[in-house]
Amino acid sequence: MIKSLNKLDWRKLLNILSNFLYSDFSKEICQNLKPFFSYEEATKAQEKTKFIWNLLEKGEKLELNSLKSLKSLIERASKRGFFLPVELSEIKKWFLTNKKLIPYLENSPFKELKNLYEELKEIDLYLDKILDWEKAEIKDRASYNLFVTRKKLKELKETLFAKLERIKENLFKKGYLQENLFTQKEGRYVLPVKTEYKNKVKGILHEVSQSGATVFIEPASIIPLSNEIENLKYIEQREIIKILREISQEIFFYSNSFLSLENIYADFEISFAKASFGKTYRGNFPFLKNEGLIKIYSGIHPLLILKEKPSSKKVYNDFIIEKGLLISGPNLGGKTVSLKTIGILILMGQSGFPIPVKEAEFPVFSKIFVDLGDDQDIIEGESSFSSHLKNLKEILDKADKNTLVLLDEPGKGTNPEEGIALVAAVINELLRRNTKVVVTTHSQFLKTLGLKMKGLKLATMEYNLETKEPTYKLIYGVWGESLAFDLAEKMGFPVELLNEAMSYLKNKEYREWYKIIEWERKKLKELEEELSLKLKNLESKEKELEEERIKLKKFYERKMEELISTWNEEFKELLKNIEKERTSYKRAIQNFENFVNKLLKCNLFREKEIREGDRVLILPFKRMGEVLKVKDKLVEVKMGNLRIEVPKEKIVKDHSEIEDYSFKPMEINLESFQRFYERIEKREVLKLLGLNIEEALEEIEKTLNKAFLEGISKVYLIHGHGTGRLREGIRDYLKNHPLVKSFKFADPMEGGTGVTIVYLEEKN
């Protein structure tokens, strides 16, 4: 199947993907990357890329670095027995990179990166203690011995340089030196002495210049210091190796974890590359499924998008494959490109790539076979047709319902009729197995046979007869012609030769008929475009009307809100006056009715048509009822057990049907108003009939105290008329009571002189 992948430009795709990778080991893995051929693996790969895609969409800046292969570092170090500081610096870069990624990895497909860091965290802390990773050096304080040794080294070098500087200045003034400087030869500090003065400078001669004019002498007076420095350097190196061996043993112990870290990170980096690559063409993730149709809308081969020719037109096609698809059409019209586009998009989708489509869904195939191009092998003595036969035989042996087969111009290289007949039989067998098949062909014979095959749909690559240019658009439901004469004419073949070639055709009129069909197809396309334009205009008008409707609705709602706001204020004023002026119940009810009648004159409550079964307010009775029958001007209503006929204008629909307003005027009905009146009135009723004066006054005292504490402003004392002694005794008692603000007899409708209404002081 590897050969099939490369025929679909899989290798070229991986080369492009490598450009989005940072680490060499990831690039190496990428070059050997293969698509996934199981649903579980494909969906998991897509999940990983989607995770990174979503992070990039949110604007997250994921910092990836070029890292060295941990596997290679461990292999080299294990041969040596320890890691060098420069290699430890590379390992430290791994930790730094992972720590930057960890905040994003919680509950992600790459959470194992976080888990591995937690496992290896102690090594990271150890490296921080001993390593200056930017300089790739072991820190002075990596151990006490190293600190002491380096301190001594520093002091000795300062002493040596000071002494060497004095010697140099003295010898230079005498003219013994070629230059006023000192240098190193084989790790020892030397002076550039002129050859003629070499006997004037005591010391060890280490080197002679090529010209022979200069000798490099280590002054004798600094030799002990240099020797001591060399000894300390040896001690320093020994201590460094000891430290390196210690940290190396820790790393070797966790080598399996480090190797897992590299594998998972490589997977992360490749998923990151897929997402980054997909961003360049604003790809979309296909919906992957176990079985079903191939649906690719506005798809294009990724390599065509990356073409650098600005003049090249990028053509997007829809590929809908239920079982099989036979694509015909002119030479250089895009048949093979369409075949490869279908194949590469499915391979990309099964490998976690976002693909260059508007939308796509297709099953995950367990096998993909491609028979494309000329595979003849000269060395093996294999012909082109025998090579194709070998491919077809392999397909027949292995293809099933989870297989995609792509055949480009099958049946070539032998007798056309025999070759096509064999190919037709193979296609038919594959369709019977429910294998997905896409075939391109120029063969009229295969197109004719294709019409009889169940499940094989026809399509053609469009060709513009006026410009004699292919449009590269795929048209379904028709077959196309190769148009060899048109292509030959375009390439400059003589007209006489083309006419002679046409005379050899058995059916000379066929080409003219094809042109007629193409013209009819063109007219149909123009009609479709005209219809599409009219539909767009209609949609535009519909949108304008909808916008106008919304605008009017908002205007109406705003006006209603203003009106309702006014009513609210008026109603609040009504309640305020009732409470302030201590309006009698009868008067309050009358005020309320006047207010409600004012509201009812508004059409707000009459917008909806009254139907049978509606709940309505019956205005004359101020009660709710149910509509039984609607007549011309009368409405039969059931009110309790009573059936009556009421004029339409005397009823309104139930307020509960009025929506979308913060205030619903119909909620202000008689019953709710009565409850309100009783609530604001806060009155207490005390019956004193049958009690003597002493008993009555005792009850009154308890009631007045209780009412005052509960904030009740009004108490009704029902004492009756009788002889008048009880009434007068009560009134005398009330005159000097500290809680009583005032008192009076009730209205005739409420009991007259048989009832005394007591108004209490307000509670502070």
TrEMBL record:
SUPFAM superfamilies: DNA repair protein MutS, domain III (SSF48334), P-loop containing nucleoside triphosphate hydrolases (SSF52540). Residues 510-595 form a coiled coil. It comes from the Bacteria. It is an enzyme of class 3 (hydrolase). PROSITE patterns: SMR. Its EC number is 3.1.-.-, 3.6.4.-. ATP binds at residues 329-336. GO terms for biological process: mismatch repair; negative regulation of DNA recombination; rescue of stalled ribosome. InterPro entries: DNA_mismatch_repair_MutS_C, DNA_mismatch_repair_MutS_core, DNA_mismatch_repair_MutS_sf, MSSS, MutS, MutS2, P-loop_NTPase, Smr_dom. Keywords: ATP-binding, Coiled coil, DNA-binding, Endonuclease, Hydrolase, Nuclease, Nucleotide-binding, RNA-binding, rRNA-binding. The keyword rRNA-binding applies. Residues 686-761 form the Smr domain. GO terms for molecular function: ATP binding; ATP hydrolysis activity; ATP-dependent DNA damage sensor activity; endonuclease activity; mismatched DNA binding; ribosomal large subunit binding; rRNA binding. Acts as a ribosome collision sensor, splitting the ribosome into its 2 subunits. Detects stalled/collided 70S ribosomes which it binds and splits by an ATP-hydrolysis driven conformational change. Acts upstream of the ribosome quality control system (RQC), a ribosome-associated complex that mediates the extraction of incompletely synthesized nascent chains from stalled ribosomes and their subsequent degradation. Probably generates substrates for RQC. Endonuclease that is involved in the suppression of homologous recombination and thus may have a key role in the control of bacterial genetic diversity. Homodimer. Binds to stalled ribosomes, contacting rRNA. Belongs to the DNA mismatch repair MutS family. MutS2 subfamily. HAMAP family: MutS2. This is Endonuclease MutS2. It comes from Thermodesulfobacterium geofontis.
